[in-house]
Amino acid sequence: MTSSDLVYVVAGGSLLLAIVLPALLERWAISAPMVLVGVGMLLGLTPLPDGLPLDPQENRAAIEHVTELVVIVALMGVGLALDRPLSFRDRRSWAAWAPTWRLLLVAMPLTIGAVALLGWWWAGLPVAAALLVGAVLAPTDPVLASDVQVAGPRTASGAAAGESVAEHEVDERDELRFTLTSEAGLNDGLAFPFVYAAILLATEGGVSHWALEWVGWYLLGKLVLAVVVGILVGRVLAYIAFRSASPSLRVAERGESLLALAALVTAYGLAEVAGGYGFVAVFVCAMTFRSAERTHDYHAAMHEVTERLERLLTLFVLLVLGVAVTRGLLDALDWRGVVIGLALIFVVRPLSGWVALAAFARRSDRSGGLTRPQQLAAAFFGVRGIGSIYYLAYASAESDVLAADWLWSTVAFTIVASVLVHGVLASPVMARVSPD
Fold first, then answer.
1. In terms of pTM, does the model score above 0.85?
2. Residue 262 is part of a domain; what is its CATH number?
3. How far apart are CA 326 and CA 14, in angstroms?
4. Which residue ranges in the chain fall short of pLDDT 50?
5. Could you give the number of structural domains in the chain?
6. pLDDT > 90: percent of the chain
7. Are 389 and 63 in contact (CB under 8 A)?
């Protein structure tokens, strides 16, 4: 049996599980990612022939590109799913996203700093490696957080009986799910400046050598480029799909939902060519496209395509991750990595999120306001996942310091622990604090 044969077997199994698991697990406090990781771990304990691309050192490029694809597909789906508009000229729309900004601008830097400090001061890592651990593990994951996110776009045909489209468009009851979804959509791209900071530390030395370049280009310049590219691609494709003079180009009328894939690939590719952050561009493109003809049923069709593709890719990656965990991926794990992973899940992220959301919070009866239980839930559900693998694979190509086996073992352990902890608690907690 060749390695390519094994890949087909794993891919086929992932596809089958992607089809049957959602219906099988809907009544249980267990998530599909938990099952896939567990199945993979069991497969890894069997006499499965060698050949799967499991070693991150030997298969870094393949791991990087596969996880990159999973994340951009997930980001497109998240952008299309969000009903709440965001307008640069409307202060009220910015206020309605208040919890998201707090988690991005306060909780995320606090998390990066706390994990980096643990890695350097307590675990004895080089500064660059410690900062990379913080940057890699700080962003929440749009891929594995489906149980705590919004279900999908609300469109004209999706409004409940007797409910107007305007009333259905922005569901103020679901502030918690909106907060977690919008945070996951944005912070995967916003982690990149800190990943680059770790790379610059490892390759160029002291901060004084590159601080201005980092602020001007990696923190601001690349982000602005990504936003501009995302808006332009989203507007152009929306014009073609909905308002083109040629009927053959108005794909929304035909319901040709594969435009979602064309949009995410185009936005990501153009942003990367321009030097911007592709993850941010994809999310902004999806949000911009959604803002055109916001209640059109075409958005639901596009979201369904991305959701199905994301589910297949995610389960494939998780199955392989599970196999790798019991085939040597955790060999370099020690008590330092275990403590850092568990501290992130149970202490660092919850405290950082609580500080961000509780201070000067908006009233819970206003758009963008969370109740106290919802604040606690939003602070706790910082799911770690596929994005962390991508960032580590990307950075490890730049320096041997950032490619240590210990880093791979620690990140893998943290992801598996997050899948287990958050997977078990997602359904009961969301049922208690988030309205139906």
1. yes
2. 1.20.1530.20
3. 18
4. 159-172
5. 1
6. 52
7. yes
